[in-house]
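ok posting inputs for the NAI job
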Amino acid sequence: MAAPVKVTVTGAAGQIGYALLFRIASGQLLGADVPVKLSLLEIPQAVKAAEGTAMELDDCAFPLLSGIEITDDPNVAFAGANVALLVGAMPRKAGMERGDLLGANGGIFGPQGKAINDHAADDIRVLVVGNPANTNALIAQQNAPDVPAERFTAMTRLDHNRALSQLAAKLQVPVTEIKNMTIWGNHSATQYPDLFHAEVGGKVAAEQVDPEWLRETFIPTVAKRGAAIIEARGASSAASAANAAIDHVHDWVNGTDWTSAAIPSDGSYGVPEGIISSFPVRSVGGRWEIIQGLEIDAFSRERIDASVAELIEERDAVRELGLI
Ligand code: NAI
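and the output
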């Protein structure tokens, strides 16, 4: 068997961690023939809970799981890591201003970026799940100057999957009938799920739905789905977030024709270079590429610009805080 791939998961004792680790260990992240070694990074108070999860992983006797390491030291967790899933983050607490939230997360993602820079394997790929995901990814990236910038990505795949499922339900088609869905911008309420390039049965999706449904129902339902899950479940999305993280890394490594991922902009579609924004992407040879040449009409332009403006504000705020 090949040498195991080291996958580091931060926030391993949290809800998403619990939904994610078993799927990684079972081979769904990288493939059914790729052995994995898991490294679980937690804060000291949660190391014991992570140890409990590791006991359960042991009890699954996963054939592909070659070892589990548990630590509260990022330098240990990221040593030799090939894939890093940065899930643990500082949640927004009541009364917290945006600057406080960004600052608190800078205290997590800055040192983690540096540890990745100093200790990870040369082929390291990073997916940031912890919110605010796009800007946390930017902070980690900017603290890892020796790692190619493109290796830092943030997750909008859950939004993408939500958009697929909402459209499939509306048109009463299987999700597999839908092609070329795109989420643009920030993983936040400003994100723009785009039906003008999505196709169902070979025809533009936006032309198959009522414009008012698209504007007043589809876009806000996808963008605010996270809040609706909290309202219904009493806890935030966890299994669906873990599923999306699996999808993102699986497709990054194994290739895909078209999906959504937040990756560093090269200036495409008027998104300033360096901003980690969601785009329509394909993955070829283990690298994300932004799908080029799409025509963006005024309706889409306005929404993409609004979400990108929010990302620029977040970037400027973390710059002012000296985090990047
Ligand atoms: P959770 O609160 O259940 O777990 C978070 C875990 O992170 C905790 O065990 C905590 O101890 C750990 N942690 C905190 N600081 C850490 C650090 N410095 N190093 C290592 N571990 C640390 O939260 P949950 O539900 O697992 O969500 C995790 C994050 O994912 C949140 O920021 C949430 O907003 C975000 N999220 C993002 C989604 C996306 O689509 N991008 C979707 C759903 C959630």
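notes: DSSP finds ten helices and 14 strands in the chain. The first helix runs from residue 15 to 25.
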